[in-house]
Amino acid sequence: MVATVRINGEDRRLEVGTLIELLRAEGVDPKRRGVAVALNGTVVRRGDWPAAALSPGDEVEIVKPFAGG
Amino acid sequence: MTDKPQDGDRLVIAGRSFASRLIVGTARFSSRQVMLDALAASGTEMVTASIRRISLEGYSESLVDLLGGRYQLLPNTAGCATVKDAVLTAQLARESLETDWVKLELIGDRETLYPDVAELIQAAEQLVGDGFTVLPYCTDDPVVCRRLADVGCAAVMPLGSPIGSGMGLCNPYNLELLCDRSPVPVILDAGIGTASDAALAMELGCGAVMVNTAIAQANDPVNMARAMGEAAAAGRRARLAGRIPRRSYGEPSSPQLGLIGSGS
């Protein structure tokens, strides 16, 4: 099913599947260190990415460490 | 003469000990290599990082891969203005960097970057309850620092002057009071401009200092980083050595007997 999901503040229309499928589709290697994900304001642990199913209207934050003071 | 800290005098935060009393930020360096060289020159063992949305157009080298093996990475909640954002950022940081430690920043004013202490204390309490080791960036208000310690923060990080301002310690008397009374380590964070600021903070009783802009934006960041590491160590050594008191009047250091000539 194609639906709108908000990824990092941007509305995107895409095939709604699991979080791990989303990451792979966005070019993020799920095995990469440092990546963290929140779904609708709650952190989803790496081990749960394959099972976490997305729904229309969901908000996803995909983050990693950057330079900072 | 050695610039190494005295044997056995280590900085202890939440049960973890460090030889270096300097924490360094990773932002605002002109290049990745300059950053790496400066961090190495500083002697630091802990560096900060921010947590930001991944660029969906590319995936540059990870800070974790670059620094993770050599330094303890301390994530910050820079940019957060609400308890909700700071807590979520901290939780994402915990997942991202696999650490319970967080430098909690909750800003109340985007121009001065001054902490919003009401929100800060709330967020700190919530995060401590969620198992975090919280190091809050705060004001140099002794009551605020006491509240932060009371809710379980592992240290307090009062500003010397606004972030990036390089104005040094605007209220050294207050900082000394704070250090005398704090049950947790005081880490001077923000406003350090040059090495003497770092040394002064340590002489006043700080357990450590944190520096970013003063190193990253110096003409020669690598040398400034080295200077900061030496200054933090020297200031600590001077503190432990016990300084002479200040006097209004002079007191001669040479003997007053056996003076040549008519004398008085």
Could you please describe the fold and organization of this structure?
The complex is a heterodimer of chains A (69) and B (264). With 69 residues, chain A is mainly β. Chain A is 10% helix and 41% strand. Chain A is globular, with a radius of gyration of 12 Å. In chain A, 28% of the residues are buried. Chain B has 264 residues and is α/β, with parallel strands linked by helices. Chain B has one domain (11-53, 62-241): Aldolase class I (TIM Barrel). The longest helix of chain B has 21 residues, at 221-241. The chains are: A mainly beta (69), B alpha/beta (264). Chain A binds chain B through residues 7-9, 26-29, 32-38, 41, 43, 45-46, 61-69, and chain B through 25-29, 35, 48-54, 56, 59, 62-65, 68, 73, 75-76, 78, 84, 88, 91-97, 163, 212-213. Strand 5 (59-67) of chain A pairs antiparallel with strand 4 (46-53) of chain B.
Task: Pick out its properties.
heterodimer; A: 69 residues; mainly beta; Ubiquitin-like (UB roll); B: 264 residues; alpha/beta; TIM Barrel; five-stranded parallel beta sheet; 16% strand; disordered N terminus
